[in-house]
Amino acid sequence: MQSSDKRKIVAYCRVSTALQGSGLEAQVRQVRVYCEQMGIRDVEIFKDENQSGAKQNRPALDRMMTAVKNNEVSQVIVPAFSRLARSTTHLLKALHEFKTYNVSFISLSERLDTSTAAGKMAFTVLAAVSQLERELIIERVKVGLANARAKGKVIGRKKLRNSDMIRALRRKGPPYRAIADLCGCSHGSVHAEVLAMKKEDAAKKLLEEQEKMKKQKEEEDLKTLGIAEEQKASNNSDTLPEYKYFETVD
After folding, report:
1. Is residue 12 domain-shared with residue 132, that is, in the same domain?
2. Cα 78 from Cα 64, distance rounded (Å)
3. Packing angle between helix 59-69 and helix 88-100, nearest 10 degrees?
4. Phi, psi torsion values for 184, nearest 5 degrees
5. Is residue 147 in a domain?
6. Are 66 and 166 members of one domain?
7. Do 8 and 21 touch, CB atoms closer than 8 A?
8. pLDDT tier at 129 (50, 70, 90 boundaries)?
9. Are residues 114 and 179 in the same domain?
């Protein structure tokens, strides 16, 4: 039913890119269907297009939060709580502000209503899970990129500069501008290649040091084991076997 509260009911919808226009329409439709079912006749919908959920400041969201702080809003409806925010910190901050201004929060996909104690608890738990899933996705992407690079695959734009020639010339000592003229590339390309070379050299040196330390440790372990075996053998030789003597009478 329509609330007797004079403050207005609002909804918030968001898509990350302009190409997701149909997704924005679907969110708006979901909100309107819910309002019709609940007898809500007037609802103001704030829409952000081409706005990442990781950003805390977005045009439409900022306008809605200003209305909340001006005590103009009684209820906020979203198609899913991920539309409002992607981080646990941002979600809980928004929830705290809603509570401060006595604004209830309803998420349609998760069927959450923060006007209830169970809804508040579930919101906090699901917000943490959403943040965890996002971090896991980022971590999987990083691992995938590292694995691809390890297999020799080129990530990103194809380099147009002659890397081998730039590196060979740089090792001989000429300045960047001279190398750029000889290789037919920009000063920035030479600088980028030199940085990449230094990074690879440092990684190679670190790997060599790790291998050297590993080898030294193995040698020390073998030496320690050998000393222990020698000590054990020495202890065994110093211990005379015990004999029992028996006298026989003819």
Report:
1. yes
2. 12
3. 30
4. 65, 40
5. no
6. no
7. no
8. confident
9. no
pLDDT reading at 137 higher than 60: yes
Q: Which residues contact 11 (CB under 8 A, 6 or more apart)?
A: 28, 31, 35, 43, 44, 45, 46, 76, 77, 78
62 and 13 assigned to the same domain: yes
Per-residue pLDDT tens digits for 161-191: 788 888 888 888 888 888 888 888 888 888 8
Q: What is the CATH number of the domain that holds 55?
A: 3.40.50.1390
Q: What is the set of active-site residues?
A: 16
Helix (H) or strand (E) holding 10: strand 8-14
Please check whether residues 65 and 174 belong to one and the same domain. Answer: no
Instruction: Name residue, tokens 């992607």.
Output: 86
Helices (runs of H) and strands (runs of E) counted in the chain:
8, 5
Q: Do 73 and 12 belong to one domain?
A: yes
Q: Strand pairing partners for 112?
A: 107
d(CA 8, CA 67): 9
* Residue-range definition of the domain harbouring residue 188: 157-221
Measured between alpha carbons, how far is residue 48 from residues 23, 43, 177 in Å?
12, 16, 47
* Amino acid in the structure at residue 170: R
In angstroms, the CA 61 to CA 65 distance is 6
State if pTM tops 0.70. no
